[in-house]
Amino acid sequence: FSVSVREITSTVQLMLYNSVGEQVAVLQQGAKNAGRQSVEYSAGTLPSGTYYARLLVDGAVVDVPVVIVR
């Protein structure tokens, strides 16, 4: 993900939700420097299906579908 804001650092939360809206993981949380960031996540315990990654950066929200296939 990229954090493009005027601030040098921003408060970032990246969470993963299942199809019924239950939070299943917190992938990233805390202050991050502006720019490109990467996150690795092992979905070993999650069943196949569609999930949603939610990125919150200083109050702005972006939801992206994520498909896990076993």
Following the backbone from N to C, one meets helices and strands in this order, namely: EEEEEE
The percent range for helix content is under 10%
Q: Summarize the main sheet.
A: 4 strands, antiparallel
Overall geometry comes to elongated
Low-confidence stretches: none
Strand tally, please?
A: 6
- Overall average pLDDT: 88
What's the arrangement of strands in the largest beta sheet?
3-2-5-6
Written overview of the protein:
- It is a single chain.
- A four-stranded antiparallel sheet has the order 3-2-5-6, with no helix packed on it.
- The two termini are 24 Å apart.
- The mean pLDDT is 88.
- Strand 5 (49-57) and strand 6 form a beta hairpin.
- 0% of the residues lie in helices and 60% in strands.
- The protein has strands spanning 2-3, 9-17, 23-33, 35-36, 49-57, 60-68.
- The chain has 70 residues and is mainly β.
Summarize the structure in short:
The chain contains no helices and six strands.
Helices, strands, pairings?
Blueprint: E1 2-3, E2 9-17, E3 23-33, E4 35-36, E5 49-57, E6 60-68
Antiparallel strand pairs: 1-4, 2-3, 2-5, 5-6
Descriptive keywords:
70 residues; two-stranded antiparallel sheet
